[in-house]
Amino acid sequence: MSEVVMEHAAEAPGLEGVVSDFSRDKQVFGVPWGKAMMWIFLLSDTFIFSCFLVSYMAVRISTTDPWPVPSEVFALSFGGDPIPLILIAIMTFILITSSGTMAMAVNMGYRRDKNKTFWLMVATAILGASFVGMQAFEWTKLIVEEGVRPWSNPMGAAQFGSSFFMITGFHGLHVSAGVIYLMWVAIRVKRGIYERRGGNYEIVEIAGLYWHFVDLVWVFIFAFFYLW
Amino acid sequence: MAYVSIADRDHEIEHHDPQTFITKYVWSQDHKVIAVQYSITAIFVGVVALILSAMMRLQLGFPDTFSFINPENYYQFVTMHGMIMVIYLLTALFLGGFGNYLIPLMCGSRDMVFPYLNMLSYWVYLLSVIILLASFFVPGGSTGAGWTLYPPQAIMPGTPGIDMGILLMLASLAVFIVAFTMGGLNYVTTVLQARCEGMTLMRMPLSVWGIFMATVLGLLAFPALLVSAIMMLLDKTIMTSFFIPAISSMGADPGHTGGSPILFQHLFWFFGHPEVYIVALPAFGIVSDLLSTHARKNIFGYRMMVWAIIIIGGLSFIVWAHHMYVSGMNPYFGFFFATTTLIIAVPTALKVYNWVLTLWQGNIHLRVPMLFAIGFIFTFIHGGLTGLFLGNVTIDLPLSDTYFVVAHFHMVMGVSPVLVVFGAIYHWFPKITGKMYNETLGKWHFWMTFLGTYSIYLPMHYLGFLGVPRRYFAMGNTEFMPESAQTLNSSITLSALFVAATQILFFVNVIWSLKSGKKAGPNPWGATTLEWQTPDTPPKHGNWGHDLPVVYRWAYDYSVPGYADDFIPQTVPPDKAPAGREHGGESH
After folding, report:
1. Fold of the domain built from segment(s) A33-227
2. H helices of A31-85, where?
3. Which of A178, A188, B193, B371 has the least CB density, counted as fewest CB within 10 Å?
């Protein structure tokens, strides 16, 4: 920034200094456009998931039928006594692990290690896909064995099924979209497209932001739907 | 800067100039073309909605006269009129139209940050409009649930259009939200990250501030509408019970249980109230620029104006339940939401004072844009003051669902923003087309519209005090309504038809001026902002020719003492002209 253009920005103390710092020349955040846009999109998406979760809580309060106990509904038995929430625990573990591999991929991207970035992204996508697969298993079990439907529920409140399928379905769509997005970026990493653009691997971090967000949303769904 | 845009590099621009007619005007990624596409589509559906309102007025003014309007049609007209005007006209026109045109030009950018996404935004918006208009032609017709789409009635037998109409409406809204999100992310990112050198946030014209904040509101408020649309679609199609309690419908049990209709109202108004400001904030911003430019005076209290926009935007998220005082929610909620609602009056009144003080001792040129801007101050004060009545629970209860409410919101978010839309189109017409409009026709258009809308909406306040309920197809024989109420209704209808017909003047003016208007110079108003300093008029692809502009001053250096012209463009460096004033009121 040239000194002619910029006058006394960021020299004022306190809140005024913060404001003039943010409002100074050209850019508010020192990040690329795509990253800024992803942050803003995720903020908007946060509001979507918040509305879903708040609505779920509201219907859970308003419904007149008893609410099924999640830890019993989502229990699996491997020969012995049923273990509560075991599948959900594994799914959560897998998704959080995938956040770890994603973070490593971002790191390798900034080190311009093409191959490691590619393989870590593929690992992330595989973990994400296995999450969706387990979700499909969970849905099948609920629908076929327990007889839960979006509009009715043999264990009590109909809203249990409707909220469950709607919220986990919407999240599952996010994960599936993320898997496709990650694979698309990974293939372009492998082809060296970002290498040719001056080794600019920012897109890996942007995809990572989305992926971490989807994981974080799952933590809230886990807490509010399964643990409550 | 470390992250110079690709568009900043000259060699890129030369290669990306669109060549064929198709890439230039149809599948265009140029923000100016997309803006015009958005505007034309929005104005087209707006005309459809205007015709619908004329049909409603015909029925209300002269009941039992027109055989082609039956109660079902009437409710469909009400619903589609409201939904189209609020979302598909005003939101799309202010953000997709003016936002697209003004943000890159006023911020000194070559285009939006992601032009391809911007292009997609328009085409998806067009798709949502087509889905919406298709609902007129499906069996059962469009939905007649009222623009608020309250369940249970929106999806229960007895309401027109429950077969296909409501499905298409909800689908269209969801598609619109996708389109808006793609555009909105672009607008916000462009304002935050892609301004030209020297264009600090506190030097931006208020138009950009208003559009920017409205877009932020949209990105945070539309999710609530999306979620409620999805849930209502599920309630309608696969019989979930999010919004429908155990209910008897037409003597039968549809099989719902335990849902919460109030939940929908909360979700809807969590979107719906910010939506009011999505429409109002761009109008606030644009009108500030019109007033300042045509009064040849800096906007009064620029810094306060910016903060008022931000504060109004923030507060708009915690006032939503003032639309629900009669819904049966907890009375303590009423206390909270009445308080926050009345607090919003403070920054809003501050803006009105500043507009009036901008005019104070200004060198006022009563050109057409200025007339519309001043007209806006009148209608906005009227609509705003009745808002204070309705914000109080005890006054709202008797006035709720009467014509007083209709008068209030039409004055504040119907007439007022539309006056700004017209003012803005007249103001930027020379830049967009390179031609001047016809001044005489424009003045006729203003006076007939302005006085006409007053003769529509002022009497409605009185009808509201009489207790005339809104959304009724016919009033029947009610004792509390005097004969004169019907006379007044007839007169309102005549005024409404007159105002609707008057709008032909606007279209005649636009078409005539496009063909044979005088050639406009690059800066016919002597305005300071960047869009008037482009090398070409209308601006070419890339906006700025070879070099991006550099900004040295705020957008309101009008009538600065010691300078030959009565305006100093933002691009004039301090050694060529007096520094003027910076940051709204702090003199150097």
Report:
1. Four Helix Bundle (Hemerythrin (Met), subunit A) (1.20.120)
2. 33-62, 70-73
3. A188
